[in-house]
Amino acid sequence: MPLVFAGVCSHAPGITGRADQADPTVRDDFYAAFGAMRESLEAAEPDALVVIAAEHFANFFMNNMPAFAIGMADSYRGPIEDPAWLGIDRVDVPGNAELSARFITKVMETTDVSFAQEWLFDHGIMVPLHFLTPRYDLPVIPANINCQGPPLTPLHRAWAFGESIRAAADALPERIALVGTGGISHWPATPDSGKINIDWDQDFLARWSRNERDRLLDYDDLDVYAEAGQGGFEIRTFVAVSAAAAGAPGTVHFYAPIPIFSVGCTVATYDLGVAS
Amino acid sequence: MGRVVSLYQVQKFLYELNRSEDTQAAYVADRHRSLAPYELTDEERRALTDPDIGLLFHLGVNGQILMHFAAFHQIEWADYLQMMRDGIAAHGPVREGVYAMTGYEGVDAHAAALGQASNARRVGTAGDDAGEVPS
Question: Cα–Cα distance between A127 and A121 in angstroms, integer?
């Protein structure tokens, strides 16, 4: 089946963990946008959800850091963080090892990936699932791009990864949905946490919405670090989804900087033109 | 070179601590003993046992690892951020790791470099017709 859904959203731990400290009006608007994204995802009737995340040293460390990894288990545990700190209960999230194996096999035809039969979900996946599959009843296939430990996965390889994901989804009989999670500009967990470069974010989201490959890949990591923080490296997850959308136009349903959440909170989708 | 390897050891310990309840129990029982398998300088050992969040940030520990160590010690978010700022003020710019890429000299210097307004604002569809955001 052709890919049935493609979108992106924020995943910062403060979104759930520090919810009580945010302006309730903008917070609730953001949550409502997440709710609308959930409805769109459900309307696409997916059999599985691929989540491209920027894993934060919950599973992979600098002793063996994959540029790309995809999970291949029947269930996943999360969050790795203290549930009280994150504001999300620890649960078992369903996977589908057999489907993952077929999916990974197809991805590997064009992009080298690691596979992982163990995967502890951190906030990068748990926060989106908390809003998008709150009953944890949709099998998840986690995927990771190295956005944390330099040398980082090059942007053009993140694009290639997205193309491989699209080809794999299209080749399988199941209905595959895709969500990329990450920040745009942000300085998470540093003294600058809470800073957000709104102009930079808006420019990036314009490129993302127009799905302009050349402009989405026209970033230098040193410039990104200076203007968008180390959290800006996570644009790789958004870029991969752009590639998977294969030229489809995107819509930003919500964007608002919420400093206590440490990120410009974003909900956006591509119009794949897929009839459900 | 030795210092880079040592930062690796500091972060490796924290990675294990964040993931493993056994490591957490060992650390609670005897902080110094739990560090024995790791090749650390005296400064790093002290930073991990005190604990000294500001010094760990100065040494180059990634915040994605460090914030969980702070939470493990029941340090509130605002206090965690301030401890890192104090660490930079006391010890100087971040020494190694990803935050040393462009020389991190503190929150005020970074804010001035950005020159950004702090007021929150919203945008709409990131096309030609930015406007009201549907909710």
Answer: 10
